[in-house]
Structures are given as C-alpha cells and as structure tokens.
C-alpha cells in the first residue's frame, strides 16, 4: 500500500505545504489517530451515495482558513511554526477571500449582465 497526497495547490508555497503535511503526520502518529481504511477504488467512479462517505478536503480557501483556525496546535509543536506567523497567514488569506467576494464571478457576469 502507499499514501498518496494530491491536495496541496500548485500555487502553494511547497515548503509550507510540506511542513504542514509532515507536522500533521507526526501529530497523527503521536496521538494514534487512525487514518481510516484504505480506499482501493477509483474515487472518480464512485456512486454519489458511496462518495458521500469519503472524507474530503476543504472545497474553498474560506473552508481551508476556517479549518486552520479550528486546528492549528499541531503546527506549533517544537517551534516549527509560530502562532504570529500562522495568524498573519490567516489574515492575509482572509483579505484575499474578501477581495474576491467583492467582484462578480465571470459566470455570474455572463448569466446576468444583459438582463
């Protein structure tokens, strides 16, 4: 078996993404958190009712920010990251989300511009 991790966004800082992933793995090992049963199926071919039982990552930057606010203690262990840095990152990313909310999505514009 193998572990496959595809979720870090291509625009993410690879160093921060790797540190966060590694710290989460260490947290799981130290706290004996069961990773769940292996999924030996093509996730893209699962029927909706089966897919609903598969844990998923945040679907938006806002969801990711909210998840980080709820659970960031594991990143602080050993002084790998500090709380000021994480809070600054959350604040910066929240500003990005808020700025995007002020502008209509291109599809929204396409659908409603000429009404």
Structure class: mainly alpha
Overall average residue pLDDT: 92
Residue stretches low in confidence (pLDDT < 50, at least 5 long) are none
Count of spatially separate domains: 1
Helix and strand element order? HHHHHH
Taken from the alpha-carbon principal axes, the silhouette is flat
**Biggest sheet descriptor:** none
* Portion of residues within helices: 40-55%
Contiguous helical run count: 6
Alpha carbon gyration radius: 18 Å
Task: List how many beta strands DSSP finds.
Answer: 0
Beta content comes to: under 5%
What's the N-to-C terminus distance?
55 Å
Provide tags for this entry.
single chain, 115 residues, mainly alpha
Describe the overall structure.
The protein has 115 residues and is mainly α. The chain has one domain. The protein has six helices and no strands. α3 packs antiparallel against α5. The model has no long low-confidence stretch (mean pLDDT 92).
């Amino acid at each position: 078996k193998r572990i496959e991790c595809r979720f870090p966004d291509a625009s993410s800082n690879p160093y921060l993404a790797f540190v966060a992933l590694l710290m989460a793995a260490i947290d799981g090992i130290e706290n004996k958190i069961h990773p769940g049963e292996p999924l030996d199926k093509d996730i893209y071919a699962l029927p909706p009712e089966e897919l609903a039982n598969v844990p998923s990552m945040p679907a938006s930057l806002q969801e990711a920010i909210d998840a980080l606010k709820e659970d960031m203690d594991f990143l602080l262990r050993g002084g790998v990251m500090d709380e000021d840095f994480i809070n600054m990152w959350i604040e910066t990313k929240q500003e990005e989300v808020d700025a995007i909310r002020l502008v209509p999505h291109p599809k929204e514009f396409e659908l409603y511009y000429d009404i």
